[in-house]
Amino acid sequence: MASFDTASKKQAETNPEDFVQLCFKFGLENITVLEVITPEQPTVEMHQADTLIKVLYEGTEALVHFEFQTTDSYDPEMSLRMAGYIIRAIELYRLPVYSNVLYLGPNAGRNDPGKFTQDLENHNISIEYQVFRLSEIDGQAILDLKLAGLIPFTPLMKHPADIDAEQWLRRCVQTADSIDVPNKPEYLGSLVILGNLIYDSQTILDMISEETMQHPPIVEYVAPQAREIGRQQGSRETIRENILEILAFHLQTDVEQTIKPALEAIDDLQHLKQLFQAAMQVATLEEFTQAINENSE
């Protein structure tokens, strides 16, 4: 979704050092960010959601590449997409590439192998990249490090076991408000947009209103994006419910346990619409399961 991509890319462009540190697991000191590269023809040479950061690492220039992905990629699969991005970047800039995909959604990226392979005799291909899932990253560690570029993502990260989701969200808001950034409403607005993947946007806005005195400008910044996100999220849930009802009625069988988990893992709206059409046509549950698998390839 464009709003999530825009909010993610904005943080990477504003605070590239934080994403470079994430790429290298916060273990490097001898690396310098030179510039954030904006491709002149993103629709042809590189995907527009990509972030390319030129760095100087141990005396050698290189690229750190981040692809922000809200949901799983089906057509093409993420490994093929990443292979294409990596090879195009190497060809275009003639620099080594450290490539990463950062999954925003809590259920996304579980099956991403972090590698594209072609196993053909004398024609083997292997292209690797790092996979980061926000739900598996220690959010408290990011807050403690005060990494401005990553803090808007922390509501989506793993929170400490001794606090609940609402307490964690409040802690993220408080920390974000303490960060010295040029445009605080825009910065907190990015937290609202990204956090809206798992929290209701109004809940986040209300919490920001309680913790800060900047509620009106944030609402002005984020309201259109939040409304669109909410509309599409509502559409997805409605389609999922309709699919389950159609299958249960049409096939006269209980599909809650077998199909519902698979549908909940699918966030792509077009994919769900295709499955809705399939649900009205299949004759067996096996056919619908096959339709899910076919659309996932």
- What is the gyration radius calculated from CA atoms? 21 Å
Global shape = flat
**Element-by-element helix/strand order:** HHEEEHEEEEHHHHHHHH
Parts with pLDDT < 50 across at least 5 consecutive residues? 41-45
CA(first)-CA(last) distance: 20 Å
**Biggest sheet statistics:** 5 strands, mixed
Structural class: alpha/beta
Q: Helix fraction?
A: 40-55%
Tally of discrete structural domains: 3
Query: What is the overall number of helices?
Result: 11
Q: Give the overall pLDDT as a whole number.
A: 84
Strand order of the largest sheet: 1-2-3-4-7
Question: How much beta, percentage-wise?
Answer: 5-15%
Instruction: Tell me the number of strands.
Output: 7
Could you give a quick summary of the protein structure above?
With 297 residues, this protein is α/β, with parallel strands linked by helices.
In terms of topology, how is this protein built?
Layout: H1 2-14, H2 16-23, E1 31-37, E2 51-57, E3 60-69, H3 78-93, E4 97-103, E5 115-118, E6 125-128, E7 130-133, H4 139-145, H5 165-178, H6 184-195, H7 201-211, H8 215-251, H9 256-264, H10 269-279, H11 285-296
Parallel strand pairs: 3-4, 4-7
Antiparallel strand pairs: 1-2, 2-3, 5-6
Helix pairs in contact: 1-2, 1-6, 5-7, 6-7, 6-8, 7-8, 8-10, 10-11
